[in-house]
């Protein structure tokens, strides 16, 4: 199994690149943001609770996303050659839970690939996407900036977790989508 954590701040290109990675390596994408938006669209109790936090640019509770991810791993583990985790783990607690759950299934994370993009470009990409994404968290400059701040405070430290395991790979996330993708493939195949 090839299990990749695709890491990076909001707007770094995780979703864009995940689509390409899963096609090339025959993996399944597990994107917590997309899973949560599906719950919102279905107006489930989880979706209703998550929407309040997501619209403000806050993280949803760890237990909520850990439970969702465990369920998805169970459901898809026989379908492909591994997973790309997009937007998860976003806290050290989530990273620890993911490691423990994968170990119980006989799997592990092979690599964390982190897309590095400066704040100015992140903001301009998210504002650009906000013109037609319909995502409430893309519509307001203050919320976009808050999402980046939450990333810096709560999520960036997750890098240390994978650094300690020698699984961390940094990739320059600026340039054409295809160029960035080639850099990611190099990191995956190292
Ligand atoms: P989530 O959906 O994960 O959003 P995010 O991390 O803010 O990421 P984005 O989708 O905004 O950016 P991305 O890096 O995927 O970039 P993309 O490829 O789309 O999370 C949303 C919310 O859900 C969170 O705020 C939180 O509330 C909650 N949540 C989710 N997971 C959670 C968790 N684990 N724990 C707790 N809460 C959680 O690209 C962005 C734009 O840039 C696009 O328009 C794209 O076309 C463009 N672009 C991409 N690459 C390039 C390029 N190379 N050149 C030019 N443009 C590019």
Q: What would you note in describing this structure?
A:
The chain is of the alpha/beta class. The protein has a single domain (2-188), classed as 3-Layer(aba) Sandwich (Rossmann fold). Helices cover 58% and strands 12% of the residues. It has helices at 14-25, 32-41, 45-56, 62-76, 92-104, 119-133, 141-155, 158-163, 177-189; strands at residues 4-7, 28-31, 83-86, 111-116, 168-172. A five-stranded parallel beta sheet has the order 2-3-1-4-5, sandwiched between helices. Helix 2 (32-41) packs across helix 3. The longest helix has 15 residues, at 62-76. The radius of gyration is 16 Å and the shape is globular. Bound molecules: BIS(adenosine)-5'-pentaphosphate.
Radius of gyration, in angstroms, nearest whole number: 16 Å
Major sheet: arrangement of strands: 2-3-1-4-5
The hetero molecules present are: BIS(adenosine)-5'-pentaphosphate
Query: How many domains, as an integer?
Result: 1
Total of helices: 9
Name the assembly state. single chain
Order of helices and strands: EHEHHHEHEHHHEH
Chain-wise SSE layout:
Elements: E1 4-7, H1 14-25, E2 28-31, H2 32-41, H3 45-56, H4 62-76, E3 83-86, H5 92-104, E4 111-116, H6 119-133, H7 141-155, H8 158-163, E5 168-172, H9 177-189
Parallel strand pairs: 1-3, 1-4, 2-3, 4-5
Helix pairs in contact: 1-9, 2-3, 4-5, 6-7
Question: What characteristics describe this protein?
Answer:
Rossmann fold; alpha/beta; 9 helices; 5-stranded parallel beta sheet; single chain
Task: Describe the structure in brief.
With 190 residues, the chain is of the alpha/beta class.
């Amino acid at each position: 199994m090839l299990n990749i954590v695709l890491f990076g701040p909001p707007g770094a290109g995780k979703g864009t690149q995940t689509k390409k990675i899963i096609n090339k390596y025959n993996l399944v994408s597990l994107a917590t943001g997309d899973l949560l938006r599906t719950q919102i669209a279905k107006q489930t109790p989880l979706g209703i609770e998550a929407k309040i936090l997501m619209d403000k640019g806050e993280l949803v509770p760890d237990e909520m996303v850990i439970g969702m991810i465990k369920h998805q791993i169970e459901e898809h583990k026989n379908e492909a050659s591994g997973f790309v985790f997009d937007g998860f783990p976003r806290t050290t607690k989530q990273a620890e839970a993911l490691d423990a759950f994968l170990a119980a299934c006989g799997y592990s994370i092979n690599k964390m690939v982190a897309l590095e993009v400066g704040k100015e470009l992140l903001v301009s990409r998210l504002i650009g996407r906000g013109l037609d994404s319909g995502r409430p968290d893309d519509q307001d400059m203050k919320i976009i900036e808050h999402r980046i701040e939450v990333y810096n405070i709560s999520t960036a430290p997750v890098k240390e977790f994978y650094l300690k395991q020698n699984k961390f790979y940094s990739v320059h996330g600026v340039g054409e989508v295809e160029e960035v993708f080639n850099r990611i493939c190099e990191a995956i195949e190292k």
